[in-house]
Structure formats: structure tokens, C-alpha cells
Amino acid sequence: MSALGGWLSRRILPWGAAGLFLTALLDSALVPMPQGVDLLLFAQTTRDPAGAPRYAALATAGSVLGCLFLYWLARRGGQAMLARRTSPERIAGLRQKMERYDALTLVLPTLIPLPLPMKLFVIAAGVFQVRLERFLAAVLFARLTRYFGIALLAQRYGDQTWSWLRENAVLTGLGVAGLLAVFYWLGRRRTAR
């Protein structure tokens, strides 16, 4: 993680907001950089706290566009694209999740900054024909929550953000769980109509 952070600081941080947008776009579309966008967003915001909303918006826009690109590739490439990334058993499990939860399946891997296989879920959404508006709503919700959350914490706590998160891990977890519950409830309500 520190090697990636150092590389991002040296190579991309000087590009400012444009570098953040491009990193988010590439990370979501093609080149996985686990927590790379988070680190860059954090660094940009601590360097320029007044720009936090702009940086979060650009990270979100880049990520959503990257996910949309990968989704369209998966719709065109179909099952073969998914088969190259995972086993037949996992494909069956993804199909079952997509059939049961639809776009809600995307929220958790897109929201939580752990190295979850987000691209696998994005590809599965394309392959299993998740409706575009539901796909965009799920990805946008998760990325807005994640990137604006990071930017606002970095703006408020600066270099102490990671300490604050460790000290308030339970509170943070409950907040994320609450957001997921609200999104799930809204999705179920819409499906019931």
C-alpha cells in the first residue's frame, strides 16, 4: 500500500484533479489499483481541503464512467469475458446473486474500500443484463458515498483521518450498514411495484 501511495504521490498527484479523474477512470475500467483512488483522493484533499467536493465529484465521475465502459464491454463480450476471470462455480453464484438482488449486488464491492473483486461484479452485471439505470444507480450511490466520505473525512481530520477511522471503526461500520440497509429497502420497494 505504501509503495502504491508513493508512486501515486510522485507520478499522479502533480496532475491535480485531472490525474485523480483519470486514475479513477482507469481503475474502474481496466487497470485495477486497489485503494489507489482512495489514497490519491485523500492526498489531494489534505493538500487542498477547500477542493474536497470537487475531488470527490471527479473521482466519482471517473469511476462511474470506467464502470460503465466495463459494463458495456461485458454486455458485448458476454460469458467469455466472465469465464476468463473466474471459475464456472463462481459464475453460477454470481448469476444467482444477480437474479436475486439485481444491481444491489454491486453496492457492497463498489462501496467498501477493501480489495473485493469489484470488476467481477461489474462484468457480471453486463453479462447477466442488469438494467442500465439500476446499474448506474447502484454504482453512483456506492461511489458517491465512498468518495465523498473519504474527502469529507480528509478535509476535516487531515493526516489524522486513518487514526480517527481506526478509533471509530464500529461507528463507521454501523454507518455503512445503515446506508446499505436504506439502499436495499429502496431497491426492494421499487421491485415490489
What does this structure look like?
- The protein is mostly helical.
- The chain is 81% helix and 0% strand.
- It has one domain (2-192).
- The chain is built from ten helices and no strands.
- Helix 2 (17-29) packs parallel to helix 4 (52-83) and helix 3 packs across helix 8 (132-157).
- The mean pLDDT is 83.
Q: State the helical fraction.
A: over 70%
Number of strands: 0
The main β sheet shows up as: none
Which regions contain 5 or more consecutive residues with pLDDT less than 50? none
Using only CA atoms, what is the Rg?
17 Å
Distance, first to last CA: 45 Å
Label the overall shape: globular
Number of helical stretches of at least 4 residues: 10
Amount of beta strand: under 5%
What is the count of distinct domains? 1
Mean pLDDT equals 83
Task: Output the keywords.
mainly alpha; 193 residues; 0% strand
Question: Which helices and strands occur, and which strands form pairs?
Answer:
Layout: H1 2-11, H2 17-29, H3 36-47, H4 52-83, H5 88-101, H6 104-111, H7 118-127, H8 132-157, H9 161-167, H10 169-192
Helix pairs in contact: 1-3, 2-3, 2-4, 3-4, 3-8, 4-7, 4-8, 6-7, 6-8
